[in-house]
Amino acid sequence: MRHGVAVLACLVIVGSLPLSVAGASVNASISTVDVSPSSPAPGETVTFDTTVRNLESSDAPLEINDIAIRKSGGRGITEYERVSDLGSISPGSTLEVPLTASFDSAGSKDLRVIVYGRDRKTGDNIELKYPVQLNVQERHPQMDITADDSVAGVESTGEVTVANGLDTQITNVEIVVEGDGVKMTKSRTVRSSVAENGSITAPFRFRPESAGEHSLTATISYTVDGDTTRSTTRTTVIDSDPLRNSVELDTTAVGSGTDRALRVAVSNGANAPLSDVMISATSENASFQRVLLENISASTTRQVRLNATMDEPRADVTVTANYELGTETEQMTTETTLRSVPGTIDLTGLDVIRQGGRLQISGSASNVGSTDADSVLVSVVNTESVTPATPNRDYFVGTVPASDFVSFDVYAQTTGNVTSVPLEVTYLVDDTRKRQTFDVDIDRMGASAQQAGQDDDSGGGDQNSMLPVFIAGGLALLVVVGVLVRRYRRGDDDIEV
């Protein structure tokens, strides 16, 4: 296999004194020998168009028995071609005879065209000779093959570069690439011509059938000098990697409220592109759209959004990616959970303050969902031991935006041993009425709550505030006891206190 082609000029030298005549009545010569192609390559057929002329000064026709082309000089006789029985040439007429030959090796060739004839008038033999010098050399356009990295079972690409270093343009150019253990999916390129010192590139596509080394051979066929067809080849060796399948799916819940979706990231860790990638999701409690990706290159990640229609607040979802890798159909799945998060009210920051016989309950109606909650109302639930009290038996909060809060205050009276007060919260989300009940622990009361101011009609109070009453009562009791003792000593029968 030749990796370089020398492009050199070929020289044809023809003798300028072609005539060799025997006999007195025939005056004849080999007038021209046209060589085509003028710059042949080894193994290429060369045509020698020989013209024999019988001059008008001849007295008789020239009968042509044979015309041959031989090697000139050296030992032995090397004859490349001979044609016979060509008829006669009348005086003033010519005969054109093509001779062909090919040469296996490059180099300078000394040749001779010989005409064997006879004088029809005298019967004498006539021999005409014409020297031809031909230079045969390797003369092909230069070729180079490049191929991208390839993987077994995966289509890859390459190109053949053709540079025409000949001293003439080449026409009818055809480039064909073949492979050993390789299936060619695009192998042929045709161009009408390539100018002298010009170049072209011929793309090709191939798919290795297995991992390992494979040979690619490019053959170029072309025409020079209008009718001479040549061809040459070049081979290169490629090393194909085994196919590696590595695909990962990553899911993220996106959207708000009931407008929920899955964002799916497809990471191609394989050493070949993924094609016809179909991303889908299935669930008993939700339905999803599907998304088609035509191609994901190796070592890249693509993201898609699968919009969801949810029947329940929670959906267990199976996400699937079906794809083509090389000549195989593959599948990857992953599991995830999708939850819808509508507006939801929770009571936070609760505090309980005792005001005489009432409890003041304050806090925040907090929206822990992702949509607004409207018409929020906080009420004290009436039970056997808890009664809503003034001034706020219930509190209309109104609208609580998503991820926001609004403060409230409600009042209750309790009887008996009560440890908690029930509060009911009602609100609207997506035009649906929601109702929740919260038990507020009375133990939430702090020292400051216990030290709040008293009502005027309260029956109890602080022990320090009752101390003067206790002292006055004690003194009165001592006065009464003293009077009784005194009268007893006097023997009084009637005792009044």
TrEMBL record:
Say yes or no: keyword Transmembrane present: yes
Q: Which InterPro entries does this UniProt record tie to the protein?
A: Ig-like_fold, Transglutaminase_C_sf
Q: Which Gene3D superfamilies match?
A: Immunoglobulins
Keyword terms, alphabetized: Membrane, Transmembrane, Transmembrane helix
One GO molecular function term of this record is:
protein-glutamine gamma-glutamyltransferase activity
Specify the superkingdom.
Answer: Archaea
Tell me where the transmembrane regions lie.
466-485
Protein name in UniProt: CARDB protein
Q: What is the lineage of its organism?
A: Archaea, Methanobacteriati, Methanobacteriota, Stenosarchaea group, Halobacteria
